[in-house]
């Protein structure tokens, strides 16, 4: 999985390619996502315990495309 996952014909980079997001934080995001999918960027920020700068970087990278800002 070094190059990321392929999902719906898109190459998804691994979370640890995001600057300032370490392996432990990436693992926590995956863990809580597996419990219940994120419903919004606010939900990701709260349950995934990530900063606004990480959310902004994910948006810039196109990772959060289609995810609403709020529930």
List the helices and strands and how they pair.
Layout: E1 5-7, E2 10-12, H1 23-35, H2 41-47, H3 52-61
Antiparallel strand pairs: 1-2
List keywords for this structure.
single chain; 71 residues; mainly alpha; 2 strands
Task: Please give a structural write-up.
- This protein is mostly helical and 71 residues long.
- 42% of the residues lie in helices and 8% in strands.
- It is globular.
Largest sheet: 2 strands, antiparallel
**Poorly predicted spans:** 1-7
Amount of helix = 40-55%
Distance between the termini: 31 Å
Secondary structure tally: strands: 2
Q: Any idea what the shape is?
A: globular
Instruction: Give the mean pLDDT.
Output: 82
Helix count? 3
Q: Pairing-aware structural class of the strands and helices? A: mainly alpha
Computed over alpha carbons, the radius of gyration is 12 Å
Order of SSEs, N→C? Answer: EEHHH
* Strand portion: 5-15%
Strand order of the largest sheet: 1-2
Concise summary:
By secondary structure, the protein is mainly alpha-helical. The protein is built from 3 helices and 2 strands. Residues 1-7 have low confidence and may be disordered.
């Amino acid at each position: 999985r070094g190059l990321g996952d392929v999902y719906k014909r898109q190459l998804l980079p691994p979370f640890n390619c995001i600057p300032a997001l370490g392996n432990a934080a990436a693992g926590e995001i995956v863990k809580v996502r597996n419990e219940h999918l994120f419903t919004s960027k606010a939900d990701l920020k709260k349950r995934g315990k990530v900063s606004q700068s990480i959310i902004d970087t994910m948006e810039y990278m196109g990772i959060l495309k289609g995810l609403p800002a709020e529930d």
